[in-house]
């Protein structure tokens, strides 16, 4: 079976599995396990094309994305909305893998597609994952410190992965990833104490993630200017202001 046709079949299968979980919630963990195994199989097929295991690093982010999307959907009530989210997630996943193939085999395509999809997946992973983690405090009693540590793991891996795909130095990547992690740790914990619903909390974290990642990438490209910093902060501030004014707090 050709790789493109195989991708289509695998992604359709993932969506069908998600649909089963929506209709029969008792199958949640079985569907989650099966979906992750399919993603591992897709990654294996891509790597097997050139026998290059180092490319596995580029295929970690889709696993985080689809899992965060799946867990976030478990907080929702409307089945129609859940179906729309999961369908969109599978569609985005297909385009990510398609872009990954081009990145892998077409040298001239390496600065066009995968970095964009990686940044988008990173932002969505952070939003969905952090929203789910903040939402857990609504339903179960668990120490906020444990939830914060889990959130920081998601933030660190997403941040590191996106800088890595931009093909910058490993040491510099680790330095900025840990700097971002330690800078955001106090805020991540303190948001549990604020009267925001979990979507607003997740949006705050994801916008800060977006700004920090943009600044680091601009720095590596030697394009970090006062103008870009100002516009970036104004955009993030405007989105946060509109969100805080328009949404209902818990």
Description:
The chain has 250 residues and is an all-alpha fold. It has one domain. It has nine helices and no strands. The longest helix is centred in the middle third of the chain and has 27 residues. The protein is globular, with a radius of gyration of 19 Å. The mean pLDDT is 80.
What is the fold's blueprint, element by element?
Elements: H1 3-23, H2 28-48, H3 60-73, H4 79-105, H5 114-139, H6 144-165, H7 170-190, H8 198-220, H9 226-246
Helix pairs in contact: 1-2, 1-4, 2-3, 3-4, 3-5, 4-5, 5-6, 5-8, 6-7, 6-8, 8-9
Describe this structure in a few short sentences.
The protein is mainly alpha-helical. It has helices at 3-23, 28-48, 60-73, 79-105, 114-139, 144-165, 170-190, 198-220, 226-246. It has one domain (3-246).
Regions with little confidence, pLDDT below 50 for 5+ residues: none
The amount of helix comes to over 70%
Multimeric state of these chains? single chain
How large is the radius of gyration? 19 Å
Report the end-to-end length measured between terminal Cα atoms: 51 Å
Mean pLDDT: 80
Q: Specify the number of helices.
A: 9
Number of spatially distinct domains: 1
Beta-strand share of residues = under 5%
Give the SSE string. HHHHHHHHH
- Gross morphology: globular
Structural class: mainly alpha
Count the E strands: 0
Keywords: Membrane, Transmembrane, Transmembrane helix
């Amino acid at each position: 079976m050709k790789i493109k046709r195989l991708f289509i079949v695998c992604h359709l299968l993932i969506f069908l599995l998600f649909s089963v979980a929506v209709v029969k919630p008792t199958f949640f963990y079985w569907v989650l396990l099966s979906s992750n195994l399919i993603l591992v199989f897709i990654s294996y097929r891509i790597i097997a094309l050139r026998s290059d295991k180092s490319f596995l690093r580029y295929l970690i982010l889709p696993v985080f994305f689809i899992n965060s999307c799946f867990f976030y959907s478990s907080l929702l009530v409307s089945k129609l909305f859940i179906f729309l989210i999961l369908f969109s997630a599978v569609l985005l996943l297909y385009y990510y893998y398609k872009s990954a193939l081009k990145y892998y085999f077409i040298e001239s395509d390496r600065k066009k597609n995968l970095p964009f999809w990686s940044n988008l997946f990173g932002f969505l992973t952070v939003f969905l994952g952090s929203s789910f983690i903040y939402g857990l405090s609504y339903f179960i009693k668990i120490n906020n410190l444990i939830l914060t540590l889990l959130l920081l793991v998601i933030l660190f891996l997403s941040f590191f992965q996106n800088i890595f795909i931009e093909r910058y130095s490993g040491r510099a990547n680790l330095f900025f990833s840990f700097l971002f992690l330690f800078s955001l740790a106090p805020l991540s914990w303190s948001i549990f104490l604020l009267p925001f619903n979990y979507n607003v909390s997740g949006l705050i974290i994801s916008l800060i993630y977006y700004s920090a990642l943009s600044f680091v990438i601009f720095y590596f490209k030697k394009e970090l200017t006062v103008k870009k910093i100002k516009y970036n902060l104004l955009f993030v501030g405007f989105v946060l202001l509109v969100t805080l004014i328009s949404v209902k707090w818990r």
